[in-house]
Amino acid sequence: MVGTVVDVVKRGDRRQPEYFLRDKLHASVVAACLSVRTPAGQAESIASTVCDSVIDWLEDKPEITSQDIRIVTAKHLHTHHPDAAYMYEQYLVTI
Amino acid sequence: MILFKHKGYKKAIVFCSIHIICLPFCPVYAINKGEETKNKHMDILTSLLAVGFAALIHASFQLSVSVLTMLSSHTIGAKRSHAKLMRLTLSFIIGTKVMTLLLVSFAALVLLDIFGSTVPQLVWACACGLLVGIGIAVWLFYYRREKGTSLWIPRSFAKHLNERSKATRTSAESFSLGLTGVISELLFIIGPIIVTALVLIGLPAIWQLVGLAMYTIISTLSSLTVWGLIGSGHSLSRIQKWRENNKQFLRFAGGGGLLILGFFVYVNEVVFHIVAGGM
User: Which of A83, B17, B70, B203 could form a disulfide with B165 if both were Cys (CB 3.0 to 4.6 A apart)?
Assistant: First the structure.
């Protein structure tokens, strides 16, 4: 797992902060892309681009929330695949 | 016209008004009731219509569809095969059907044990009050005031369902997720289930089975529709977008349906018997 030394404060503030993990973000973006039937190769490519953009954004920040990551990721994903971005945003508000 | 000359003509007016109100719900019943009060087939028809309508209200509630959407999303996202996706989602729907069947049967058994096949009017009135209360609650609280389609169910239930839908690998797990999904929605579906049980215990045994089967099938129609859409390759984002765009309509339809059912049952089982008893 590739980690970046940025503390991520989890949702609801009930769990311990954890380091930002690029692989975790990558997997979630790939899953969002696949769930709207994007071909696997394209999903991987989009996820890599989005993860790079998110890492660029968080480089100068010592601490962020998981919600911040979600918002920024959805914003970048939206430019590549709006449907996948929509499903990514809906993850926590479907049920 | 002879009725109006009679001493109890006011009751006759009320009696006729009830028939007019009932007419949109069951025309055959409304027309024939005055001529053949003891026509059992008409009673059965009315009962089955009430059960069908209650099941449609149940089908308008969205928790099962939400969980089905999440389950499909996680399954596709985990690169599982289409056959596996269809197996898991079908097992989920069978789970919801089984739990619905068990809940209605259980409610009917308990009510039959307590009241026998003749339910007191007070119980009918309480059931109507429950329907109206839930109907208003659905209008006010069914969806949370935020983006998406998150519902006013306990957050611990929602979290559990979300996590389980992600962790589901086998058909058995999916089946149990379907069972749990119905339990989580019990707060809203308890009204239609109780009224259905009350209606069913007044029917002959064979018609009870028909009503039970009818309720179970109709109440899962929305999940079956989504299952069909997923199976035919429709995008989950389109399904979810449709649900989000139409959530106010679904809320209005569900709540309104509960109010209409409560009113219909109240008129049919409480007011009608009071008026008919007094004539």
Answer: B70
